[in-house]
């Protein structure tokens, strides 16, 4: 049975059941192969007013769906539909649109048109048009429609590139009939009219666009509209030579970042603040940048409001929406350093790692330059103070910045930022928040209880959401009895913290605006937290406590399983139970996160010596459990990182002896390079914090082992500043713990490589020290690896004669050690040095031996490197056909290994050889392929291909 996802569901109305069952079916289909939480199903069907029979009704709907699609199963507290995505035409549409985009990027415009036609031909009307859509399906439908509009624009771009101006105009005109405010579509139509020779028509299109943007949105025309109008007015371009859409290395547009997290719960209230934000938004694009500060106490809903409003206006910021949690009051770690925050933002804007400067001021200047002329939205969440934020401001009047903080950020306000202060909600808004979760009828029936719950919750959206979640879970209990139990707990001091609370865990007092700010007054939010916590089952309560020990901003299922010493499936069920109680929420990446106040409360419970709940009386002391949980977490992170390190670097020698996870420690399964890289990226911040904490606590073995696992990941991502700190800590830890000279030497080798990349002094000294330490213990292979690394430093400085001496020593050491793969690598390095010094025949002799030895010992990476070097030498001897054959063999090997960077390097060399042999078309094709790979990797070497791919000015 085929089920369409772009038009009406291809399921007869009878078998698919009543409208709400069809809505559940559509929801499961649009989230196919992803678990849909129970609360989202409720929200989709009834939004703010679910009936008491909601759970029973949903079970009945799912049962009916299972008769149609047996792939529906329970997953935690929600449901999962497992289905072949190829049975959904939405999948075919998205695959086709992406394939066409790739063809356009390769300059294959004629081939892209039928692919676009096929993808767009799948549309038969609005998505799931015959289903009563609630908020979840409505959001999905809008996102899918946006994909359709972008694909239509891509089709018009392709026609422009083919000089099919009439067809481009028709496509753009049809799109504007549906979406008249799309600036890109107006640009496409104007370019098409101009290309067809209709100058007046092109100017009329641009005038219409300017008027619509001003009248409907209060916005001035963008730079692209202004520039095109000037070009047409001054006849600066010949209509016959409008450039085709193809990759242009110097100016190619990159995919704009879309980083806004999804909204966790339905938004209610804050009408006055939303109106003020709308007013400030209308000021963007004037002569100054708009910076809005959303400030207020913890739990007042700053992030919720910021994200809700950012989603409302994101469509007017086509160049990107950036989100960064600055962790200003994070109970588990330090605020994000501004230099590190800038690196994160620049990376999101596709600035290659090698181009990100080392200093704070230079990074700040680069961010301003990168965002100049763009319409970009920045949400800087949870800022510590003005000093943390100031370097992150773009400076461009077209950009909008929203900053949330518990402090007033007076430094920003004094400099012109617009302050919006959030206070606790008023009683009517509190009632609305409760009604959104427990139902309007239930709230209307007990207004006195609602007022008391709001008072005891300090009128904070965070605490109201927690109470509402408990009320929703206790549907048969009156709100009056819930208010009484909450009030009784507050009166008894049941929410107060013990002296051995967060301070004992973090080494300092609670952060300003944290739990301490709510203690001692009429209302203590700990009372609400404690009330909800005590309603948990014993295992979920223990899981909540232990999550307070996790140092990261979010947690994976496997990490939670390690903390709680339980199977991952059990851990996920417990996490879902905490989500149902509003003590936790799922992130878009399938991980789990919570509010800083709740993390602080969980941390207090985790290290408290007193049992907070009789339900936990069978457990060990909480403090003992905390210590064991942290040890398990660290072991999980270490051993999964170790597996990931071996997966991302083909042929990397394991530690000696290899690490083996202790029994009962979950190690995340990482099937291949991509999964390993994604895991390391998700856990990177947590791993860096663990290294810092382990070093401070004297866990030196863990420090140098974790630093070893992160080395290649940090190097590949250009995280050389973090790598330098890790390597320095590892070297110190190795010395301090007497781990041995070889361990220290390896850490120094990493430190030298990081310093080389950063341009910091001391790299040569670190290499010399590493080589001496390896020599001290007779580790010939280790000394040789250090020599080869040092040789790369010398080569990068064009000190080829010195590099030759160093690499020859590495070759001697590898041979003496009997390390065949190392011998092959050293032979290739010596041969490459000969080639750079102009002795191509000696280069061929050494590299041929390297290739033969690599084949003999089954070392494909070494073989590919040697073949590339041989191709380079034959190219410079004029043996072009031999060079092409060698490069082709090297390419095949790198493609099999999945090493994209070296594949691009060989393709560049191949293009050079074709060019020297007088084959310009083949040369351009090779360079084009290399440029595409390097651009996807955000590697600065892409710039070196610009001159090769850009035609001379007189040919333009």
Automatic annotation (TrEMBL):
Ranges: TPR repeats: 864-897
Keyword Chaperone: no
Domain annotation OmpR/PhoB-type: ranges: 13-81
PROSITE patterns for this protein: TPR
InterPro entries, sorted: AfsR-DnrI-RedD_regulator, BTAD, NB-ARC, OmpR/PhoB-type_DNA-bd, P-loop_NTPase, Sig_transdc_resp-reg_C-effctor, TPR-like_helical_dom_sf, TPR_rpt
Region Disordered, annotated ranges: 238-264
Transmembrane segments: none
This protein's UniProt keywords: DNA-binding, TPR repeat, Transcription, Transcription regulation
PANTHER family: TRANSCRIPTIONAL REGULATOR REDD, TRANSCRIPTIONAL REGULATOR REDD-RELATED
Record's protein name: Tetratricopeptide repeat protein
